[in-house]
Amino acid sequence: MSPLPSTEDLQKQLDRFRAANQNLRLQPLKTSDELNRFWVEHDPDLLDELEQTVKSSLETEKHLLTGHTGCGKSTLLAELRYRLEPDYFVVLFSVSDLVEMADINHVTILFSVATQLLEAAEEKEISIPPSTRLQLYRWLGKHTQVDTRQVEESFEVGYEAGGGISGAIAKFWAAVKSTLKINAVIRDEITVTFERQISELVSQINFIASVIAAESDRPLLVIIDDLDKLNLDLATKVYGNNIQPLSQPSFRILYTIPIFILRDVRLRKILEANTARIQIMRVGKFFAKGDSHQPHPTPVNLELVESFEQILNRRLPPDLIDEAVRQMLVLKSGGVLREMVRIASRCCDKCMVQLGRSLRSGAKIPSALPKIDAAILQQALTDFQIEYDEPLGQKDYELLKGIYQEGKPQDAEDQRFLDLLHGLHILEYRNAKLWYDLNPIVLDLLRQEGVLSEPHE
Amino acid sequence: MNNPHPPSNLDAQVAFPIHPAPIHQANEDAFDELVAVIEASQGILSILIAVCDDRLFRDQIIQRYETALSPPFFPVRLVLDHQEPSLRAAIDQWLTAHSGIQTEPRPLMLTLTGSEALMWLNLESEDEPTPLDKFYGYLQWTREGLREFPYPIVLWVTHRILKQLSRRSPDFWSWRRGVYRFMTEESQVMPQIPLPKDSFPTIDSQTIDSEAPDSLNLPLADLLGLIAKTEAKSNIPTAALAALYDQLGQAYARRVNNGEATDLHWEKTQAIASFRRAIELQAQFNLASERMNSLRRLGAFYRSQSNYPSALEYYQQSLEVARAIGDVHGEGTTLMNLGVVYKDQGKWNEAIAIYEQSLQIYRAIGDVHGEGQTLNNLGTVYQAQGKWTEAIAAYEQSLQIYRAIGDVHGEGQTLGNLGMLQKQQKNLDRAKEIWGEALTKLHPDSPEHATVTQWLHSAAQPRRGGWQSWLLPLGLLGFLLWNLVRGHWLLALLVGGLGMGWWVWRRRR
């Protein structure tokens, strides 16, 4: 029998879980450092496809990308940016970093584009003619009500080659961003001002883009992330009623869109009429259709399972999880990357709780160092089952049951169905055909609730 | 950077022929008439108002009539002083400086130019009248002084100045011998402006002009440089050029409209050419909303040059684009601009029909701000027609909206118009009161504030009485003298006392 772990061992193990938990943040990988450390190519086809689509597109074309929440879009976009950067002046930003979700509309989106273009030009030291630069800052200052006097003084000194952004300029940008983020009154004023003359805002953006195009050696590509998080109301307002102004800037833009737009025939038609085709980031399919309903399903797509495991290994040292549990954890994600990370992170939490308790004076020392095993995973999954169950009513159970049995909804535009799709209760899978399945955790939930019968052995 | 496409590349692309066509028949008629009247005006004062918006063309006409008339006349050309734009002072100064002219056997014939430059001189302080205000003021008040100049005087103005002239210097206007309109190559049919007899200015709400409302005020050099750099990158035009040419058009238009153009004619053609190039590129790259804007800006530029047919043409095109892309706000804005052009031309029914359309649109989309603006503009048309009740109703509705949405500047604009309407109805005190209120609402830096200040200023000026006002004192004086001669001392004292009392009372008032 192996000796009991010492307090030091326990402490060390706790620290390792803490570090792993740090790496299991749910945010997408954005910086090149994060990408280097954690990125594993798991949808190489889509990345290549996006790259080629952009490169072969007309200079004013608009692109759309959608996919389930948490399936890795943002990380994919960050990687796309690094791939395209040698050939394009890429400006990638999340609209949620600038504007509160509630105030997202076509005006605030376009205003964010103007802001980001200018900031990117500054960061990349594009040498805009001084008077033009001054006027553009004044324009931005006027609408965000941020004082430009200090920036103007610093302009008089001129550009410092390699000097980066000066203090006054950095301050200005911080003020602009925080104003947009926290000042609802100013956001409102911007919306009111430009709603009535949206074409003028478009003209202004196009001018800023033209200045960058003149001074830069690469064509412009703007990627706007997180617009896929809009709820149906907002998405209808933004994409349904105002796609025209969004399609008017004179440069390439890649917009992210919510996945449920694909179900909404009207919205989808509007989008397709105004943009190039919609690219979809698929949820990873571990199983063939129906296989996951079997008692001990065997994944068909081992390559994908392996790539998910690899992603997990980058963040969670392999010895902190039972070999047999790892694959189970991956499969419970249903192919949604963020779900896998979330489950792993919750498992880490459970382990840390155990370790913390053991370290308390007088506590019983465990016989072995805690790590993620079947029991821990089950605890985590139970947590998630409760979370998934929270919003569900009897009607939803019926709807989910229908999905389980038929692989598709009775009405793909039904609001409740769309909500469940958005909430990841239902996952959409595609190959040549499109089908829906339940999130594995929801499947377990329904079986436990008796809504679905346990599979026969 | 070694640039294979210096700015002159632009010139090659946008060069326009200068008046390739012979002067239009109407111009010929005007010219013949002008020459005939000058000939008939030897040795007598004759005020001839010649109108042309194009400086080069105008100079050609002057050259032509001076050549045609140099025997028997001695032609003299004068330019108005910017600071003190007095017709009389200009002639006076020239005569003083050329005292030897007395011996000149040929009769003089004077041509005065320079009023067009006054359009664009800015107000230095709110209390100071603008040079253009002074010009109208001088014309209005120095007519009598011109009597000492027994010459034909040809005063050259632009269409815009002409329109104001009849309103702001009505006395001088009533004294004109004739008005001779010369159309530039672009405006084939310059419509007559049937202004009502008692016409007063009003403030129109225009949301878009030849410059973006949010104009960046960019210098020409920057834009020409950016265009040159972009064009140097590729022989094939790019979408990025469209926005640059649109800004270039705005920059030229601003220079022309603000009197900053070093070569007015050249910069006018450049403004037009730049907008046209932008429109062409926008069509090529399917940038519809930008195209709608550029078309509207070009329309507005033509309007600022009093070229109404072209203004209408481009506004119409802008309207079509707005409708095609379903930009209802854009449609409303362009309709408002169209309405102003019709109003400028005195086509009241067309203007009203257009405003009704834009009102319908704004109401349908719930844009109350646009509704308020349209109602204000509708009021100005009714006012120009002398339909006071309708005008007041429109203004009241507009005010109600502006107050409800808290648009203080808009409220000030409408109040300004309402004040003018009161003035027209001879309620000067009420007018002054309303203008006073308007000034508290209007943005202090706005042109509307300057306009209303000017209105209030001119209303506050004491009016000079006519000769009739001297009848009573002269009569009293005569009666007093008669009584003195007759030895009626007591009666003389009474009359003298009454006269003194009247004089003191009048002074106090």
Commentary on this structure:
The complex is a heterodimer of chains A (457) and B (509). Chain A is an alpha/beta fold and 457 residues long. Chain A folds into two domains: 7-24 and 286-448, no CATH class; 44-281, P-loop containing nucleotide triphosphate hydrolases (Rossmann fold, 3-Layer(aba) Sandwich), CATH 3.40.50. Chain A is built from 20 helices and seven strands. A five-stranded parallel sheet of chain A has the order 2-3-4-1-5, with helices on both faces. In chain A, helix 15 (323-332) packs across helix 16 (337-359), helix 16 (337-359) packs across helix 17 (374-389) and helix 17 packs across helix 20. The model of chain A has no long low-confidence stretch (mean pLDDT 85). With 509 residues, chain B is mainly alpha-helical. Chain B has a domain at 25-181: Rossmann fold. Chain B has 22 helices and five strands. Chain B has helices at 8-14, 25-39, 55-69, 87-97, 115-118, 131-141, 159-168, 170-174, 220-233, 240-257, 264-284, 288-304, 308-325, 328-344, 348-365, 368-385, 388-405, 408-424, 428-441, 447-460, 471-486, 489-508; strands spanning 46-51, 74-79, 108-113, 152-157, 178-181. A five-stranded parallel sheet of chain B has the order 2-3-4-1-5, with helices on both faces. Classes of the chains: A alpha/beta (457), B mainly alpha (509). At the A-B interface, helix 6 and helix 10 of A face helix 9, helix 10, helix 12 and helix 14 of B.
